[in-house]
Amino acid sequence: MSLQPLAAALVHSPVIDRRGDQVTTAVTNLDLHDIARSARTYGLKRFYVITPVAEQQRLVDKLLAHWTEGFGAGYNPKRQQAMELIRVFPTIEEALVDWQTVTGGEPFPVLTGAARDDGGSFAGCREKLKEKPGLILFGTGWGLAPELFDRGWFVLEPVQGVDRYNHLSVRAAAAIILDRLAGRPGNN
Questions:
Q1: Which of 158, 160, 149, 150 is nearest to 119 (CA)?
Q2: What is the Cα–Cα distance from 83 to 76, expressed in whole angstroms?
Q3: HEC string of the chain?
Q4: pLDDT digit string, tens, across residues 25-74
Q5: What is the pLDDT of residues 92-108, one digit of tens each?
Q6: What is the pLDDT of residue 1?
Q7: Rounded distance, CA 12 to CA 65, Å?
Q8: Domain boundaries, the chain
Q9: d(CA 36, CA 116)
Q10: Which CATH superfamily is domain 6-182 in?
Q11: What is the mean pLDDT of the chain?
Q12: How far apart are CA 181 and CA 82, in angstroms?
């Protein structure tokens, strides 16, 4: 059985900073381009950008207009395909509603975090993603806010390297996680 439709969300709020304080982070051009390209590569249907800041939402809209309708669309059609996956919402809840509307099924939110040691396996997550349309949530800053982990959503085990150092960029972590969850069998 194959996976149900899959989406990713880059969460800018609620996230934490290096001191553990809840903050809202700034949207970055590089994150949007790289994660959208990974999302398109692994067959995702949506890439949500979550920010409650109206000015940041307008920035994303302007960037998307350039790459999906403007000069960038003709200049780089492959980038256009990736950027067309992006949707901006102020909250995770609104993205979940949109994802349910798109798929017609109850979403299966998956939380990620490098500092988590209580996560379920990639294999276990893949099995769940065969049953419900998944929404993989990636945190910016120093990760998703603790309150999100109190919702009873699936928590994915962190990507681990060769030792205790674990400070990947969100772009690198997203690419690895998407490969492990949606890549060809035998790749993971």
A1: 158
A2: 11
A3: CCCCCEEEEEECCCEECCCCCEECCCCCHHHHHHHHHHHHHCCCCEEEEECCCHHHHHHHHHHHHHHHCCHHHHHCHHHHHHHCCEEEECCHHHHHHHHHHHHCCCCEEEECCCCCCCCECHHHHHHHCCCCCEEEEEECCCCECHHHHHCCCEEECCCCCCCCCCCCCHHHHHHHHHHHHHCCCCCC
A4: 999 999 999 999 999 999 999 999 999 999 999 999 999 999 999 999 99
A5: 999 999 999 999 999 99
A6: 66
A7: 21
A8: 6-182
A9: 25
A10: SPOUT methyltransferase, trefoil knot domain (3.40.1280.10)
A11: 96
A12: 19
* Global pTM exceeds 0.70: yes
Say which residue the tokens 């490969």 belong to: 179
Comparison of pLDDT for 185 and 162, the residue scoring more: 162
Q: Report the C-alpha gap between 21 and 71 in whole angstroms.
A: 40
Residue showing tokens 């395909």: 81
Q: Token pair 């780089």 is at which residue?
A: 76
The full length of the chain comes to 188
Amino acid at 148: L
